[in-house]
Design brief:
By secondary structure, the protein is an alpha+beta fold. It is about 55% helix and about 20% strand. It has two domains: about 190 residues, no CATH class; about 190 residues, no CATH class. The strands form three sheets. It has a six-stranded mixed beta barrel with strand order 2-3-10-7-9-8, surrounded by four helices. It has a two-stranded antiparallel ribbon with strand order 4-5. About 0% of the residues have low confidence.
Length: about 425
């Protein structure tokens, strides 16, 4: 009996081929729109996230305990002692690929004519270059780009690279000499003459407008310390961040180390707000698509009932129960939803891959100076949610017309013209 109802519902769907095809097209178009828009958002989130991580955040940053609470006002009071031993300990944790030390401090940068307040970073050039490489489906690119000159390398001592915005504000070019002034950890003033080796840029305009990078050995000499402020860890996959974070917390506790850490997502405020904004926009799009699907199928089923009123009266007169009539029309809506959803998912997936092969050139987002090439990131949960929306919308839109058909009075239905 169930198989007979299914066959009958399937045949009824295509009794009016034009109307059914238009309905299927509306459902499929809704799925395709969700897949393309959702895939674009997914790719935007991914590229922005990896840009922040590989540009300057890393996946996890480790500090001396108390730095997160008071480090902004007293950064030199919370320095990691014996950083090499801590690096070895962190490297023993699964999924950790690289660890590099940093010292971040404020200072003044002068060309003799211009003087500005800056954020200085003492870095290990090799470690930072390893962290900055982003592996993507399109190959490898970098989270830190060099606009002019060269990046820092092993053996550099009195060389610096300037953020793009900082170099422009200072009027400094590759080969120019600058003076960096800062306080030592003991509070005395110290200064160094430095040569501009290159100009860099990252995903963050704010960082590029104020940042200077120099070899960590030079930074330690300027500050007169052998300690480091931060250890930045890069993982094999961003998805392993929470797993490694928990392992490190337990490891620090077991080894009785006075350390604390912060994952990338707690530092990327702009990224978090962007994801929240786009996610709400995508939710509105889902609701709009669902309404379109509901209205399309509602219209199809309602017209079908109007055309088949006498037929409904006949099968009810022959003994069919009201719930069987209800089930028959719900099956028709379900079939439309399944077929439209399958078509939409198939076409949307193919179209997403084609668009990704070409790429979509995008302008720089707010707070950045670098554009990117967007793709359509087709992920399983997006395909599933698109198909599910088509299916649920189909059932919901079929219910009222089906219920209306099941409540017809037999005599009135048989007299219908």
């Amino acid at each position: 009996m169930e198989l007979l109802n299914l066959k009958l519902a399937f045949r009824n769907v295509f009794r009016n081929k034009v109307r059914s095809l238009i309905t299927l097209a509306a459902i499929a178009f809704g799925c395709i729109s969700l897949i393309i828009a959702g895939g674009f958002f997914e790719d935007t989130f991914l590229q922005m996230r990896e840009g922040y991580i590989h540009g300057h955040l890393g996946h996890i940053q480790v500090y001396e305990k108390g730095y997160l609470e008071k480090g902004n006002t007293r950064p030199f009071d919370y320095m990691i002692e014996h950083p090499e031993k801590v690096k070895e300990l962190i490297a023993s944790v699964d999924h950790v690929k690289f660890i590099t030390p940093r010292i971040t401090f404020s200072g003044l940068l002068s060309t003799g004519e211009n003087t500005v307040s800056i954020l200085s970073q003492g870095i290990n050039p090799e470690g930072e270059q390893a962290i900055s490489v982003i592996e993507t489906v399109k190959g490898a690119n970098t989270g830190v780009g060099i606009e002019a000159g060269e990046n820092l390398s092993r053996g550099d001592m009195y060389d610096v690279i300037l953020g793009r915005g900082l170099a422009k504000a200072m009027g400094s070019k590759v080969g120019n000499f600058v003076i960096l002034v800062s306080n030592t950890v003991g509070g005395a003033l110290n200064a160094l003459d430095m040569k501009v080796k290159g100009v860099f840029f990252t995903a963050s305009k704010e960082f590029d407008d104020h940042a200077l990078r120099m070899p960590i050995a030079t930074a330690q000499a300027l500050l007169r310390t052998d300690k480091v402020q931060t250890l930045v860890a890069l993982l094999d996959k961003t998805e392993n961040t929470d797993l490694v974070k928990n392992q490190l917390v337990n490891l620090f506790r077991d080894e009785d180390l006075n350390l604390e850490l912060k994952p990338w997502y707690e530092m990327a405020d702009f990224y978090n707000k962007t994801v929240e904004l786009y996610s709400r926009q995508f939710l509105v799009l889902k609701l709009i698509i669902a309404v379109i699907v509901v209205l399309s199928i509602f219209n199809t089923i309602n017209m079908s009932i109007w055309e088949r009123t006498r037929e409904i009266g006949t099968i009810m007169a022959l003994g069919s129960k009201r719930y069987e009539v209800l089930k028959l029309f719900l099956l028709e809506g379900l079939i439309l939803g399944i077929l439209g959803g399958l078509i939409g998912v198939t076409v949307g997936t193919g179209l997403g891959y084609v668009i990704s092969l070409i790429g979509i050139p995008m302008p720089p987002p707010p707070g950045a100076t670098v554009g990117w090439v967007a793709h359509i990131r087709v992920v399983p949960q997006l395909l599933f949610s698109s198909f599910l929306i088509a299916l649920i919308s189909s059932l919901l839109s079929s219910f009222y017309p089906a219920f209306k058909a099941s409540r017809l009075v037999i005599a009135d239905a048989l007299r219908h013209f």
